[in-house]
Amino acid sequence: MADWIDACAADDIEEEDLIRFDHGERTFAIYRSPDNSFFCTDGLCTHEQVHLEDGLVMDYVIECPKHNGQFDYRTGKALRAPVCENLGTYPVKVEGGRVFIQI
Amino acid sequence: MSRRDYSMLGADGVRAVETGLAAAQWYHSDIPRAEMKALMKRENGPAVRDTITLYGCMLAFAGAGIALWPQVAGSFAVWPSLVSLPFWLAYGVLYGSAMDSRWHECSHGTAFRTPWMNDVVYQIASFMMVRNPITWRWSHARHHTDTLIVGRDPEIVAMRPPKLARILANLLGLVDAWTGWSRMLLNASGRLSAEEATFIPQSEQPKVIRVARIWLAIYALVIAAAIWMGSILPLMLVGLPRLYGAWHHVVTGVMQHAGLAENVLDHRLNSRTVYINPISRFIYWNMNYHVEHHMFPMVPYYRLPALHAKIKHDLPAASPSMLAAYAEIIPVLWRQLRNEELFIKRALPATARPYREDLHQTALRPAAA
Ligand code: FES
After folding, report:
1. What ipTM score was computed for the predicted complex, to two decimals?
2. Backbone phi, then psi, for B345, in 5-degree steps?
3. pTM assigned to the model
4. Of the options 2.102.10.10, 3.40.50.150, 3.40.190.10, 1.10.10.10, the CATH number for the domain spanning A4-102
5. What's the CA gap between B188 and B194, in Å, rounded?
6. Which A residues, 64 through 93, put their C-beta within 8 Å of a C-beta on chain B?
């Protein structure tokens, strides 16, 4: 069973935005949606491995800062070229104002 | 004979990968995240307004051109009248040049907030510019990953030594449009060129072929209409404006990078921002803020002036006009004909973070004049 990792405070992420979270060798992106839900994906875009932390969150879409490829961050689905490969996603829970991800 | 190999399959491309120039980290001016988010924010308003204006003007100019077309025995004559030429020239610039910037902005998906609006304008503009929308989306992604990296960037316009004849011929679309049409024929036959296959993923390749076949059918209809009418009128509307209206996008496009450094990882060294007149800015959709666009391709065209204001302390001074830009470009291109190592290294203001000479050692080595 994968571990739950304490990633950040819920308030660390603005509404309709994301932050980067590094854990060991791995890097993730944690999102707060416009309806105040939290999600987690791999941090690097599947096109050219650029970090999504500087990208733009619009509703439930994250746009990569390098070539404007887009993913649905709830499912990781690639939505717009040049991304073709989906992003990995991870379960998230919020407890006591902290965001935990299961990796 | 150039010592540089600009093909995607050549030695320079291999060297760029080996030396870490390909897909590298690039310099960015600092902007706080909150300000960046505001700059990246998308809306439909500005692009809807501009698109209605653009297509409205095209309809009006084409309508005037048709109304003034001479008639012979109740049918359209072969050639347009002299008095209609200004209307055709205006229509041509909107078709053969404004569509270049629409193609560009919508390929980034930044013009409109609503994705389908970007896609519709992208498809129309791609057809008018004769740029396969699938192929060029990938080629443009490469241009952003590896801007002006020799052997990696498929969109380098002024090579070293510069291909001046090619640039001049392209003022009438003579090279690029013909290349586009011959690529269309190749793709419609079910094949891709060897270069295209290097940057278009296999899963996307069938789409390239499908689009080429649809375009071929459209051109066949237009040519059939021209033959049936015994007039070039249908071709003045579709196809030919890519030639007779191309000049403006070449004039503005050459300014983007010509004469600047190759094989560097800082857009301040290889891109140029130029202040231009409002009509050209409408046609070019603010791409005259070119350093800004390359540094932050997420910022939509209508916020590039605001982005420019925020980071200009960290950039070389913008060229004050197109004339000034060409006064800088033409002499260096001319001298590059004899010495391809020459380029312009633009001075940074005292407020800017300096260029990382360690990153660009070989590219920035001083060249003999
Ligand atoms: S690196 Fe993300 S779209 Fe290219």
Report:
1. 0.89
2. -110, 110
3. 0.92
4. 2.102.10.10
5. 15
6. 65-68, 70, 80-82, 84
